[in-house]
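notes to self, project folder thing:

trying the whole complex as one job this time. last attempt i did each chain seperately and stitching them together was a nightmare. two parts in total, labels are on each line so i dont mix them up again. if this works i'll redo the older ones the same way
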Amino acid sequence: MQERLFGVKDAFVAGAIVAFFYLLFTQELGYLTGYAEVVWWLAAILWATVLFKKGFDYHRIMNSFGLSFLVIIGFIFVFFDLALKFEGIPRAIALFLIPLMIVAILGYIHDKIMTVRELRRRRKIKVPINKRVRTTLYKLDPIMIVFIVVGFSILITFLLVPVFMMLFNSFVVPPGEPFYYNFVYIFNNPPYVKHMLLPGEASWYAIIPSGNTSLIIFKGINYGIVVNSLINSTIVTTVATFLGILVAFVLARYDFPGKAVFRVLAMVPLFITPFVNAYVVRILFGPQGPISMLTQSLFGYQIEIKDLAGIAMAQIMAFYPIVYLNAFSSFISIDPSMEEQAENLGSKGAKLFFTVTLPLALPGIIAGSILVFIFSLEDLGAPIVFQYPWVMSYQIYSSFTSETGIVSPQIAALGFIMLFIAVLAFLAVRSFVSMRSYAMISRGGRWKPRVRKLGWKGLLFVYLVMLPLIIFTAMPQIGVILLAFNIIPPYGFKIQLDKATAKYFIGIFTNPTYFQYIRNTLTYAAMAVVLATIISIIIAYSVSRTRIRVITPIMDTLATIPLAIPGLVIALGYFYFFSTFFRGTPLDPTSVTTFQAWIVLVIAYTIRKLPFVVRSVYAGFQQVHEALEEASLNLGASRTKTIFRIVLPMITTYIISGIIVGFIYITTEVSTSITIGGLNPAQAPMTFIMKNIYYGGTVYGVQYVASMGVLLILFQLIAVLIITVVLKQRYAFIGV
Amino acid sequence: MTRVRLENITKVYGSVVAVDRVTLEIESGELFTLLGPSGCGKTTTLRIIAGFEVPEEGKIYFDDEDVTFLKPYKRNTAMVFQNYALWPHMTVFDNIAYGLRIKKLPAEEIRRRVKWALELVKLEGLENRYPLQLSGGQQQRVALARALVVEPRVLLLDEPLSNLDAKLRIEMREEIKKLQRKLGITTVYVTHDQLEAMSISDRIAVMNKGKVLQYGPPRQVYFHPTSLFVADFLGRSNILYGKAGRQHDGYIDVYIPDLDATLTGVPVREITSRDVAVVIRPEIARLVEKYETVENKLVGRIDLAMFLGDKVELRVNVGKSSLIIYMSNLYEPTLDSEITFYLPKDSLIVLPVEKPLNIK
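result (full assembly):
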C-alpha cells in the first residue's frame, strides 16, 4: 500500500468549505463579525497546517506555474483585501485561497530548512575565513576591485538611497500618530478607497439622450484611487493576456495568405509614442470618432469611452503586444516532438492545447503578463490624456505640479504601494523567466516549428476577427502619422487628404519653440546613454566575471531592478534625495528659479534605463568564453590590458545594440521627464511638451506634437533595422 | 628549463575538495601527464600551476621560486586550452604575436619569432587567416604556436586533443611529442584518455577524487599498479576478489571463491590482510592443452566472441565469473565451446583490497 499524499484538491476543498461557512455565518446570519472573523482565518490556516503535517505534496505547487502564480497573486489579493477592508465575496475568495497559500509557504520554508541542513551536513570541510578571503582577493585584479567599488557606489547612491528616501518619507506622520498612519489614512479615506458609492456613481456607463439620437458613455466606476489602479491594471492584464495568447498562437502555428503583414501589424503597437497614442485612442472613441460614427449609422447610438474605461482601452491596445511577443517566442520554442508525442497518444485540438502547449508556454506568457501589470500600474500617458486623476500614477504626478514645492508624505505612501506591487511582481517574473528553459527542454538542435494550413473556418476567423483586431490595435500609431501630416484634424475624425501637409513635421525642426525640446531630449539622451554604457560595462563585467558570495548577486539584482521600479518612484526618490542632500544648490528641485533639471534628468535616465544596456552588454560578456581571457592573462597581459584588447573588441556589437536600445528608451521616457523636467520647463525634454499639449486640451500644437511622435517612431524604426539587419541581433523590446 | 614542484596542494570549492594534498615533482624538460576520470581534479591542478586558481593549502615552486601567489600574467607559463581559446577577432599572426607584443618586443623580432613558430607547427602561409577559417587541427596548431612562441618556463596542455577526430588525434599526439622533445620544454599534460597518456608521457600521475594515487613512467604504472583504481583505469582488467593464502618466493596464492580455484600471482604491495584482489590483464591469457600442467590453468566456456581486427576479444565463463581475454586474430573461436588457458604467474597482479569494493 502506498501512502496517499494530500494534494492540491484537498487545499481547495478546505478553502471552499471555510469560505462557504464564512459566507453563511458571517455574511448571511451575522455571527462572528468584526474581530471575531479571525476565527475563519485561523480555521483556514489550521486546516492547511494539518494537511501539511499529514504529508501534503507541496512540490506540486512549486512545480506548477499556474499554481505558484496563483499563490503569488493570492498574496497581493489577500493583502489588499485586508488593507482595504473588502468584505463579502472578495473576502470569501481570500479565505478560499488561504489554505493553498499556507501549504505553499510551509512547503517553501520546509524546503529551505532542508537545503540549509543538507549544506551544513555536507560542509564538513571548514576552510578558515582568512583563506577564503585570500582566495577571493587573489582572483580579483585591481581593476575588478575598482569596477565593483565604482559600480556599487553608483547603484547605492543613485538608486538605493533615493528609493529609501521615498520609503522613509512615506513614514513621516503628523505628530502623535503611529508610524503607519499614512497607510491607514490611504486605506480608509474616500479619495483613496471608497466603501460607499453615491447613487450617481454606481454605474459604469451612462446614456445621454441628445436630439433624435442618444450618446452611450462607457466610463467605469470610481472606487477610489488605490482600488481604481488595482482594478484597472488587473483588467488590462487579463484582456491583454488573452489577446496576446490568441494572436501569438494563430501566428505561431498557422499558415495563411498575408501572414507576414499580420506579423508586422502586430508589432506596430510596440512603437512607443508617449501621450500621442492615447490621444488617438481618445479621438477614436470620442463622440465624433469613427467608432461612434459607425454605431450611429448601424444602431442609431453614439458611443464614447472615457475616464477609467478609456484608460483601460488605451493601455490594452498599447500593452498587449508585450504578451504577444513573449507568447509567440514561447510557442515557437516548444519542441514539436512534445506535441507530436501527445497527438501520437490521441490528444488533439483544445485538449492538446490546454494539456501540453499552454502549460509549456506559460512561464513566458506569465512573464509578459506581469510586465503588463507593472506598466499599466505606472502608466501616466493614458490617465493624463483622458484627464482622469483618480488613479495612483496621476496622483503622484500631480503632486509635482502643485506649486508648493513640497511632496506630501501621503504621496510617498502611494509610491510605496506602487513599488511594493511592482517589485513583488518583478521578483515573480524573474523566477518565472529563469524557469523558461522548461519550454526548451530536450532542445536537440533547431527544429522547424509546427505550422499548418488553416481550414475555411479558421480563415474566416483570421480575416474577419483577427485582422480588424490587429489593425485596430495599430490605429494609435497610424493615427499619430495621420495627425502629424494633418490628414485628420486635431479634433473629431475626418479624413482630409486635400489638407495633407508636411509643414508641421518640418516645423518641429525649424520652429525654435518646438525644436528646443527635441534638442534637449537628444542632448540628454546622448549624455545618459554614454554614462549608462560605461556603468553597464563596469557592472556587467563584475557580475559575469566575479563570483563573490552575496556581493555579485546583489549587484546583479540592483542593476536589473530599475526595470520594475516605477518611474514615478524614481522621480519621488530623486525629489527627496536632491532636495535633502543638495538643499540650496542648483540641484535642489525646490529652488524653483535656479534648479538645473537637466543634470538630475540625465542621472535619472541613466539609472532608469540601465537594465536595457546592462542586459545587452552582459549578453556580450557571456558570449566571451572565460578561457579567451585566461589565454591572454596566461601570455602575460594584465587584467586591464585583457579587457581592453580582448574582451571589449569582441563585444562591440553588443555594446552598440545596448547603446541603441538605451537611446530609444531614454528618448521616450515619461515619468521623470514630466515631473522633474516640469520643475524647470526651459530644460524639459520632448515628452514634457507632448504632455503639455494634450494636458491643456488645446487644439493648437497637436500636429506638432504628433510630428514629434512620428520622429520617435522613426528613431525606433531605424534602431530596429540597425540591430536586426546590421548587427544581426534581436531587438530587445520591453520584457522580451 | 624549469622544474615544477607541488607541495601538499589542496583546493576546495564550496564543500568539494577538488584537489586533495597533492605533492608532485615535475622534472625539467619532461612531459608529465595528469591522468584521471572527469572531475578528478587534474584540470584544477593544471589551473593552479597556471595561476588561475590559488590553493587553500600548499605551495608551488618553479625551480626554487615560490609562485603560489604569483598572478597568472607574471608566471610565464603558456597554456593550450581544451577549446583552443583563439581570439576570433584577430588573425593567426595577431593571435601568435599577442604574447610578444605584450612583452613589447621590437616588431622585427616579433615577425621573426612568429614565423619560427608557424614553421614549427607547419602552418606557414596562414598568417592572415582568421581562426574561424581554419579547421580544428589547424586551430590546435595555432594555439600550440601561440603558447610556444613566448618561450614559456612551463607548457600546460589541457586535454588539447579532445576536440579532434580519432585519426587527427593520433597524428597530433605524435607531433606534440616530437615538438616537446625537440624544444626540451617542461610540459604538463592533462587528459582522461589513458592511451594518449601512456603513448606520449615520460611520467604519468593517475588521479582520482582529488588525490594522486600513483605516479611513474607509463610501463611501471601499467605493469605494477598499486591500487585497484589504477589497475582498472589504465588498460583493461578483470578484477577478482579472494582470500590470501601462502606467500612463497615473491609469489602469493589467492583462493578465488567465484572460480573455485587458487591463483598464484605477484603481490605489488605488501599484503597485510586476508582480503585481496587479483588483477588479470586480458592479454596475458595463453591457450594451453587441457592435460598440460601449468600454473593458473583455467577451463571456461566461450560466452561471447568479438573480432576486433588486430585481436579477438572473448568473454569466457569460468565458474561463477566471467573473464575478458584477448587472443591473436588468427584464433577462430566457437561459441559455447570449452576453452582452456593459463595465466602466467609473473603477469598476475595481486593487490590488497583497501576500502569497500567500489571501483569507479
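what i see at first glance: Confidence is low (pLDDT under 50) at residues 435-445 of chain A.
need to look closer tmrw
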